[in-house]
């Protein structure tokens, strides 16, 4: 009996994945024999006489498997057998790993390592990447692909291909890169008419997805920012990170034409873009009549109708009064339907309509709620001793919002040894139609050591409620200006006191000579004092942050009544409410609930 290609160790060799034959031959007898192949005591084929071939395609699980050929003559009841072990040459089984992670921030290092399993050496290895198309990224046959400074161009699916004489093994890994927003399309200049909302459209690239906030306003009504994913079916959306950002501005007087700024940010960083609004002079324009509702999503439209069953409502001259937090802010004459377009926080409050009918004065009241972003009323920068205090006053409905502080686009922890963050309810002032109204709002405060100012390029405070956000930007120039003002306010007396504290008399000089003999022991004492002093200074700095916050709380505990500069008003996409539309300028229709519907007042009043 003979098995072809058997070695002295009773082994036969084959390549993984290739068709292979094991052949058993014998010198035939009389009568002819029957041949059988067995594997692990299971018969796999039968035939003969003289030769039996078993053909199959081995895989990795067949490596080391035993095969037995058996020849038997049924008349003489004699048999021959021989066993062989199958040894496979394995093609590479490849693995790819990423360090530190498959998700990396731009500017960071990324290392992709390729490993393979096989019992024979590889012939070559190379890398390629797929990002919309195949790109060869390495030809030096290295098992490591190192990216020292990751950018958005490094995202994609990477493949490591290893080849040996048996075959090819391939493994892949998908890498995502977090990068700050970049602008693809940005039109800086826009022209519109008074009382006409201007649509603002930006195209940006960002990963993760961005949010947008108005950070500077010339006073017009600002729309919410809607985020729309850009989708191109010809591209792999796994890698596509292009977005449209859409909002609007409605100027209601000529002072509202000017410079606006929008901040676009994600977890990695932010950019700030200018929007210049120019006036288009025309002879006249039309205002459309909208149907009404008692809730208005910021930048949408609403109207309120004052009606009576006893009169023709279309011909009635009505006097409207607008109350914001119980303070009268507007009075105007009009018809029974009041149109409010492109609403913002200044339109919130109670609306009272009054008209005369048969010598009787009638009135009705309805409340309008604006669903929109927090309102920034003012920001202040003050320096107290060695600490910088930045405070942001804001107002929003429905309780305290989420506050995020950023220094150089790095989000700050709530509290650390370097800074303190606080938020509390307080009386603030907001500007509504030429009126300064004192209401209950919030004050967010950041306190840090002024020694950090040289390393700060900007500070951002983001106030977020639901999916709306408002944002304040404090520039390095503003911090330096506040520090210069603080230095200029120091009095000459303080300077002279500091000089006096470091002046030595002649007696001190004589006394210092007598202490030279004990200089070495005093050096040890000095070092101990120095170590204690550093520890004390760190404790004092930490304590100082808390004391400054406490002092500010005491000063802000009373009523705030100061001139307000309406600087930054930020609006971001609202997806919390089911009814919101992805398009700007829609009209929303809801029923109006009137309270105290008809009130009869003596006509002599």
UniProtKB/TrEMBL annotation:
Compartmental location: Membrane
Keywords, in A-Z order: Disulfide bond, Glycoprotein, Immunoglobulin domain, Membrane, Transmembrane, Transmembrane helix
A GO-annotated cellular component: membrane
Ig-like domain sequence ranges: 1-85, 92-176, 274-369
Pfam families in the record: Ig_2 (PF13895)
Keyword Transmembrane helix: yes
TM segment ranges: 516-536
Primary location: membrane
Topology within the bilayer: Single-pass type I membrane protein
InterPro entries (UniProt xref): Cell_adhesion_signaling, Ig-like_dom, Ig-like_dom_sf, Ig-like_fold, Ig_sub, Ig_sub2
Protein known as: Hemicentin
Organism for this UniProt entry: Mytilus galloprovincialis
